[in-house]
Specification:
Elements lengths: L3 E4 L2 E7 L5 E6 L1 E2 H7 L23 E9 L8 E5 L3 E2 L2 E5 L2 E6 L17 E9 L2 H11 L27 E3 L2 E3 L4 E2 L4 E5 L2 E13 L2 E12 L3 E9 L2 E9 L2 E11 L16 E7 L4 E6 L4 E4 L10 E4 L2 E3 L1 E6 L11 H13 L4 E4 L8 H10 L2 E5 L11 H18 L5 E5 L12 H5 L1 H22 L4 E3 L21 E2 L21 E3 L8 H5 L12 H5 L6 H12 L6 H25 L6 E4 L22 H9 L3 E8 L2 E8 L5 E11 L4 E4 L3 E4 L4 E8 L10 E11 L2 E10 L13 E7 L5 E7 L3 E8 L5 E2 L4 E3 L4 E7 L6 H7 E4 L8
Parallel strand pairs: 25-26, 25-32, 26-27, 27-28, 28-29, 30-31
Antiparallel strand pairs: 1-14, 2-3, 2-5, 4-13, 5-10, 6-14, 7-13, 8-9, 8-10, 11-12, 15-16, 16-19, 17-18, 17-20, 20-21, 22-23, 23-24, 33-34, 34-38, 35-36, 35-37, 35-39, 39-40, 41-42, 42-46, 43-45, 43-47, 44-46
Keywords: Glycoprotein, Glycosidase, Hydrolase
Family: Belongs to the glycosyl hydrolase 2 family.
GO biological process, one term: carbohydrate metabolic process
Length: 823
Amino acid sequence: MTSSTLNLDGTWLLRNLNGEQQCDFTLPGDVFSALLAAELIPDPYFAENEHLVRWVGETDWEISKSFNVDPHLLEGEHVFLELNRVDTMADVFVNDTLIQSCSNSFTRYRPELKSSLVSGENTIRIVFKRIDKIALERAQSMPYPVPFSAGDNNTVPHMNTVRKTQCHAGWDWGITLMTSGVYESVFIQSVHNQRIDYLTNVQRHSENGVEIEFSTKVFIFQAGEFSLDFSFNGQQKRITRDLEAGEHSIECVFNVEQPKLWWPVGFGDAHLYPVEVSSLDGQSIQQNIGLRELVVDNSRDEIGKRLTILVNGIEIFCKGANWIPSDALISRQTEAKHRGLLEDAVAANMNMIRVWGGGQYEYDHFYDICDELGLLVWQDAMFACSQYPSLDWFLEEVGEELKHQTQRLSHHCGLALWCGDNEVIGSLTWYDESKNDPLKYSVNYDRLNHFIDQSISKYDPQRMFWPSSPCNGPMDFGGWHDDTSGDMHFWNVWHSGESFDAYYSVRPRFCSEFGFQSFSSLPSTKEFLPEGEFNVTAPAMEHHQKNNRGNSIITEMFTRLFRMPSSFEQQLYLSQVQQAMAMGVGIEYWRSTRPVCMGTLYWQLNDNWPVASWSSIEYNGRWKQLHYHVCRSYNPVMVTAYVKDQALQIWGVNDQAQHAEVFCQGGIYDLNGKLLVELPEQSRLEAGEARCLFSLPQSEWLDDVRERFVLVRYQGMCQGKVYEGERLLFLTEPKRVALPAATINHRCVALDDGKIEVQLSSNKPAFYVTLEVDGDTGVFDDNSINLSVGETRNLVFTPRQGISLESFTTQLRIYDLANATMA
């Protein structure tokens, strides 16, 4: 007989257990989204409504549904219920029989169901228990306290005792929505004598091509003959085995001559091959896989220990950002939203995304899109910024979680490494308990971390396991701020209040976290602020800042760099200028130190609700100024300018595997736009080279820093591709420069494809010229630019929602640095 499935998605009934609230529930989905759709709660993202909906997470909920079972479904020898992403502590009943108690939102459950089903009408209920009580009960039952990060990073105590997305309890950028629900399809599967599961591969690359060995798990219920059909690269193979009852692995080997290799963004095509494995009863697994050889080099050198990723023998400078869950309302975590954000990352010349350990293992489509786009993935295990238990019951939970997640994800060619946690080893120095008894808590940490390593390596032995971020490497955790080895988190500028020049004080081998906050743009801010609160210190505005010192840090840095902003909207604008300046210094300087540094992943790409944060893309998808600057800072061929070692230095960086020709224009200008010191026009950069192209001693320009600025415009040409960018550098704090009050003229023109062109010119040099429009979250082809006297710059806007020329022209705002501040 053939296998069959019954999908249970669609409309369910949601109610709390005392019956006071009930409404429709769409599965896959979450409780908050259902209540919001039924207008039983206000929008939690608006104003301070977060406080008004907290009760939802402090309530037990039930979802239920009636469904019909065809007699054919019951003909299978075994019938299973497939449960994925059940959040979190939940009991599942079918026809009032308890069939599964869930306790880990990262684990798949497959309870046997046949004895509980009847032909015709059946019922299913899932009862979700409130997490805060269970977390407290678990913490109180521990033989020793397990400290967690309270305050900014967690508003619900003891979240570290439950296997649930940690940032559901809030973070220093995140709202607290202690949601529950089921976030993937629920279905019933009927099989006869076998079930196939997972499809992994091991690749062996040589001069003769690639040998790829596929392996799939087979569960046999009765001993006998079993066949699997494999289809790959135009070839079909049938594997037949006599198998005893139990779990088996079935392997099939293919050879590919002259393979089309998979490459990260910027190094070649991200070519994918379809593969399918199917059983004779109709079960099948389909994937698209890339052929590539990936090595993580953590070897010693004269400085310390590298962290360099090589793909197909080429060293890759990893350029990217950290990813957090895309929405606190889980129902809004759609494939379309994820594709948009990942495509925006690629548009900014990124080649890596780090899936951060306080969030979630992402959906299958997320990793499929990364493979398709050529994005490498740094994958954290889901542990962050707290200590965690290492008791047997907790390890059992974690073991089942990693057994599933590792086998689910290991086939993805973009998956570069597994990391054991985010800052958990570092957090040993945060708490009184661990500081007073370091041996006990070090042993506790080591037991869990070693178990994570073993669990992942058992099912994905071909990938590097990186113990923690940051650390120096396997069995070598090093110092928290050690820039000689492994990866580093550099937060001195934001958390410690050091100047942007602090980025020049370190040369990390790989910086996997660093960041600086900004406010959202005015159009985005309008979406969550009520009338009368358009002020940074207004209650609703402060509520949308989750870092305890965030607004103070942003404002204090204003006083160091700028004259004070002239209005609320200029304060928002200026915060984004400041953020772009900070990140530009770090990214571009560290890129110029290659091959010492071989990766920068800034914090953070995206937001999960509208908030002041470190993101480069606002919650609604609108690009901050930072994202436009990152496009230039991450250019495969890039030119940067900075002052170091008492000299103005112009550096060229070529990340490509071929040489590049670089053409520069500009140099040092006065405030009237007159070029005083001109740069060399043309240079050649070898493959993978970073080199100083020009240096001018400080003694030759120091006396006139208030009347000078540096502007470099460049074209990098490599393999027929042209990379353009610009770099602005003030030689002192902008507040000390008598910035000319420029008059910026503009003209808007509708293009045939629905896009709109804005033609810009200025009578004086204008800096950080930024366009924004209320009616659409679309993207300009460039923004936050610098205008020279007498030039016309044409910026093209690609709408997302659709906007008329008239509406665009009416709602367009143009900012620049001089006009943003008080005289």
